[in-house]
Design a protein that fits this description.
The complex is a heterodimer of chains A (114) and B (112).
Chain A (H helix, E strand, L loop, with lengths): L4 E3 L2 E4 L5 E6 L6 E8 L3 E9 L2 E4 L8 E7 L2 E6 L8 E8 L7 E3 L3 E5 L1
Parallel strand pairs in A: 2-11
Antiparallel strand pairs in A: 1-3, 3-8, 4-5, 4-9, 5-6, 7-8, 9-10, 9-11
Chain B lengths: L8 E5 L4 E6 L7 E8 L6 E6 L4 E2 L4 E4 L5 E6 L8 E9 L13 E6 L1
Parallel strand pairs in B: 1-9
Antiparallel strand pairs in B: 2-7, 3-4, 3-8, 5-6, 6-7, 8-9
The chains are: A mainly beta (114), B mainly beta (112).
Chain lengths: 114, 112
């Protein structure tokens, strides 16, 4: 299996622009998680989905952030408009709802907002 | 907020056992102890988890005290590739609660 796939791996954009991060979970997994990591705040859960349904979005910082999971093999995290304080590494992870609740993380997207 | 307390950093000699402690004094009866690690610039990686009994897998051993208020992750023969930040997390595994709340972790440096 290729593991969790994220794209792009690096994104540099200017303040005010729309940013879309993409994630393909591991086939057969039915939970998907979006995390953000910064030096100041560490690793934070933004939102997670079970069976494509958003379960908890309490970690989403504000209305500028939105996440979708239109099917079991694809999810997006969108920031509009982007701000410099959104600069971070964004990780996507997937897992199963049954058995060992291990989360498999992708390589992350490093976002820089100028 | 994270429910665990870990030392911010530790050092270990290559080939020796690395013992990483974690305090979780407020853990409830249904909460599991999970360990993940994050090697520089990579996504976190699952290591091991347990509820009451000690656990061992190909990566590590997990020792949980009888009162469950603390645990120790043991890497039996640390290598340079084990240099990473290690996170101890308690998590409720029933009722669909899937959250992992990461604290600051312990930065383990394995020295040659």
């Amino acid at each position: 299996d290729a593991g969790v796939i994220q794209s792009p791996r690096h994104e540099v954009t200017e303040m005010g622009q729309e940013v879309t991060l993409r994630c393909k979970p591991i086939s057969g997994h039915n939970s998907l998680f979006w995390y953000r990591q910064t030096m100041m705040r560490g690793l934070e859960l933004l939102i997670y989905f079970n069976n494509n349904v958003p379960i908890d979005d309490s970690g989403m910082p504000e209305d500028r952030f939105s996440a979708k999971m239109p099917n079991a093999s694809f999810s997006t995290l969108k920031i509009q408009p982007s701000e410099p304080r959104d600069s971070a590494v964004y990780f996507c992870a997937s897992g199963r709802l049954a058995g060992v609740r291990e989360q498999f993380f992708g390589p992350g997207t490093r976002l820089t907002v100028l | 907020d994270a429910k665990t307390t870990q030392p911010p950093s530790m050092d270990c000699a290559e080939g020796r056992a690395a013992n990483l402690p974690c305090n979780h004094s407020t853990i409830s009866g249904n909460e599991y102890v999970y360990w993940y690690r994050q090697i520089h610039s990579q996504g976190p990686q699952y290591i091991i988890h347990g509820l009451k009994n000690n656990e061992t897998n190909e990566m590590a051993s997990l020792i949980i005290t009888e009162d469950r208020k603390s645990s120790t992750l043991i890497l039996p023969h640390a290598t340079l590739r084990d240099t990473a930040v290690y996170y101890c997390i308690v998590r409720f595994d029933q009722g669909g609660s899937e959250k992992l709340v990461f604290g600051k972790g312990t930065k383990l440096t394995v020295n040659p």
